[in-house]
Amino acid sequence: MVDGAFAHTPTPPYVAVIFTSVRTPGDNGYAVMASRMDELARIQPGYLGIESAREELGITVSYWADEAAAQAWKHVTEHEIAQQRGRSAWYADYQVRVATVTRSYGPDGPR
Amino acid sequence: MVDGAFAHTPTPPYVAVIFTSVRTPGDNGYAVMASRMDELARIQPGYLGIESAREELGITVSYWADEAAAQAWKHVTEHEIAQQRGRSAWYADYQVRVATVTRSYGPDGPR
Q1: What is the mean pLDDT of each run of 10 residues along chain B (111 residues)?
Q2: A87 and B107 in contact by Cβ < 8 A?
Q3: Are B2 and A22 an interchain contact pair (Cβ–Cβ within 8 Å)?
Q4: Which residue of A has its CA nearest to B59?
Q5: What is the pTM of this model?
């Protein structure tokens, strides 16, 4: 098992927030804020993990114990400010999908 | 709206299959098979779209009309052969999470 990149989530059910985005050109303060949001997310109640990759499209999946925990993170003040800056400066477009994970498995079976 | 990279999914509910992976070194026939699987997925019943990005971690989210459609795709013979090759050659590790999307929104509200 390769560690570090994967989120270590518990047995389902839990919530996945799938955030897909296309960036605008330039940094415009994005890297610093992204790193701060990552740090801040990790200390929220119900936080389970985060997975992220970016090519043409960026995909970040954050995992939460339940819908209430995912919603609470959306409304953390510092995160709301980041979301507003995301809409006005960092993202040409984005989509958020909130989903309930029902099954999970790896190469050796359920995980 | 930036087009091309985003999946154009309908109003929820629908199913998201979140596939996260870490590759082994080298191509080993991966690129050709990945492109073929992409092509094959698109013609399956209940296929809604696919989104993909890879850095240290690869994340591919495929969207399906329902659980039955996602399951059927998992069991398409050519895809089963690819999955076996994935386990033996292409992926150092991977995780699949099957989830039901319940809400979806973009910068301008529900989408």
Answers
A1: 77 98 95 95 97 95 97 96 95 97 94 84
A2: yes
A3: yes
A4: A53
A5: 0.95
